[in-house]
Amino acid sequence: MSPFLVLSLLFGLVFGQTASLCAPSEYTIHVEKRECAYCLAINTTICAGFCMTRDSNGKKLLLKSALSQNVCTYKEMLYQTAVIPGCPRHTIPYYSYPVAVSCKCGKCNTDYSDCVREKVRTNYCTKPQKLCNM
């Protein structure tokens, strides 16, 4: 194998991971409870972006370990809590949500990530809206 080919392969592997555009991104979550008078719009950060993956078209020729499909997921996160306004006394008005501190390309962990993209997803308020800047 020629040295140029080996260097090109190594460069491609290293550059492939750094070329991934996975980073914390601003996102607005809309939260409401049936008992509360308002919907809360929370500005937070989530992990979003592109990660290099391997083509699964050659799955009959490759080992399963070589067919990893990486996703943009949390490397570090913390949780913050917001209070939903207009809730009666008997209702717990607190809502905790994740805040992405840093992100990475890796396997999707279903303990803290939604690994399936739904076709129809609603992220809007049906009640009067209050904005929460955290």
Automatic annotation (TrEMBL):
Entry keywords, A to Z: Disulfide bond, Glycoprotein, Hormone, Secreted, Signal
GO-annotated molecular function: hormone activity
Highest taxon of source: Eukaryota
CDD domains recorded: GHB_like
Matching Gene3D superfamilies: Cystine-knot cytokines
Matches recorded under InterPro entries: Cystine-knot_cytokine, Glyco_hormone_CN, Gonadotropin_bsu, Gonadotropin_bsu_CS
One Pfam match: Cys_knot
A Gene Ontology BP annotation from the UniProt entry: G protein-coupled receptor signaling pathway
Subcellular location: Secreted
GO cellular component terms given for this protein: cytoplasm; extracellular space
Signal peptide interval: 1-16
Subunit structure: Heterodimer of a common alpha chain and a unique beta chain which confers biological specificity to thyrotropin, lutropin, follitropin and gonadotropin.
Family to which the UniProt record says this protein belongs: Belongs to the glycoprotein hormones subunit beta family.
Protein's UniProt name: Thyrotropin subunit beta
Species the sequence originates in: Psilopogon haemacephalus
